[in-house]
Design goal:
The chain is α/β, with parallel strands linked by helices. The chain contains 13 helices and 7 strands. The two termini are about 35 Å apart.
Length: about 375
């Protein structure tokens, strides 16, 4: 009850932190939180899970014995995590992970006969944190994976991944995939992204590249987001794809509009407060596209078009992800638990043709 009222309840006795009692900022507390959500989802039977991450437990840094976590079960762990953050937080992170996973796999897959698409040969993960896509997704072996994040975060991630790959859950696929990951230690607020990528001898700025910007934009000033998109435009070739998430600005101005009907909207403030406490405050957010409007017409879509010539194809809410992922397997999230504080954008590189450019107000933000 104290957690639901937003009081500081300290450390959860079951899991030493659940999703949001984060680690120190030097090891990216928010990255651990997302890894915990992936690990909770991975406990479900194969036919019910949306994400299967054999490395999530190691990335999460649970201090409770593994056998106790398994005995607690998926439902209890998700309920505790939601109580300490906000209802539906775990499902939001799972939906985001699954959407990004699907887009990366689709972008890298060989083209079917008659398909007008260029397969991406590079995967660039910005603000990678404890992301494990480069090791767990079924992408072609020739696809090179580049992870960009701060040096301290990458050092922690590499140590944890090495431990996980030595553990019994290591698979043959993951063992072979780990060798193609290139770690680029870089603070995006202090160094030029495109220059760092071009300086790496293996990176090809002319190649079609799928870029993920997951759970990152809210931690950057708006001008830094614009500069990063510009740099990505210069550092990727025709046929490139971009998948990004951003915080819905209505979280700050009209929280009820960023939730399902009957959702306790006041709970959203706890998530931002936890990020602030982990020394990773939210700095930027964007309103969604107008009702019935195209993704490219939304503020984030216009930002993409103005900086780097990206063409937004989709700008989706967690409600749409709920229908796409949870509903078909009988796990539809009820409106009273539907957290929609983030939105997900899929975009194509402008060089490949299409519209969506020359729109007014390219960098609307809050």
């Amino acid at each position: 009850p104290r957690a639901v009222r937003g009081e500081d309840v300290g450390v959860c006795p079951l899991c030493s932190g659940c999703v949001t009692h984060m680690a120190a900022p030097t090891t990216s507390g928010t990255a651990r939180g997302v890894a915990k959500a992936r690990d909770i989802e991975s406990m479900l039977p194969p036919e019910l899970r949306l994400v299967d991450d054999p490395y999530a437990a190691a990335m999460a840094g649970w201090r409770t014995p593994r056998w106790l976590l398994r005995c607690s079960g998926h439902g209890l762990r998700q309920a505790i995590s939601d109580a300490l953050t906000c209802p539906g937080y775990v499902q939001l992170m799972v939906a985001r992970t699954r959407l990004f996973d699907d887009e990366v796999v689709r972008a890298c897959a060989p083209t079917a006969p008659g398909e007008a698409r260029t397969p991406c040969t590079q995967l660039l993960i910005l603000g990678a944190g404890f992301c494990t896509r480069g090791s767990r997704l079924p992408i072609p072996p020739h696809v090179r994976v580049y992870e960009v994040d701060q040096p301290s975060v990458q050092a922690a991630k590499r140590r944890l991944m090495a431990e996980a790959q030595r553990a019994a859950r290591k698979s043959e696929r993951a063992a072979s995939a780990s060798g193609r990951i290139v770690y680029l230690p870089l603070d995006l607020s202090e160094a030029a992204l495109d220059a760092a990528l071009r300086a790496h001898p293996g990176y090809d700025p002319a190649a079609p590249t799928v870029v993920t910007v997951e759970g990152l934009t809210q931690y950057m000033p708006a001008e830094a987001v614009a500069a990063t998109l510009e740099a990505l435009g210069r550092a990727t070739g025709p046929g490139s794809r971009l998948v990004a998430s951003y915080v819905d600005a209505r979280v700050h101005t009209d929280p009820a509009a960023a939730c399902g009907e009957g959702y306790p909207a006041h709970a959203l403030a706890r998530v931002a407060a936890f990020a602030e406490r982990a020394n990773e405050p939210w700095l930027s957010s964007w309103p969604p596209p107008p009702p019935g409007g195209r993704a490219a017409m939304g503020p984030f879509g216009r930002l993409l078009a103005a900086h780097g010539r990206w063409r937004a194809e989709r700008d989706e809410s967690a409600g749409e992800a709920n229908e796409a992922f949870f509903a078909p397997i009988g796990r539809r999230i009820p409106p009273s638990s539907l957290c929609m504080m983030e939105r997900f954008v899929v975009a194509a590189k402008g060089d490949s043709g299409g519209g969506g450019f020359g729109l007014d107000g390219g960098d609307t933000t809050e």
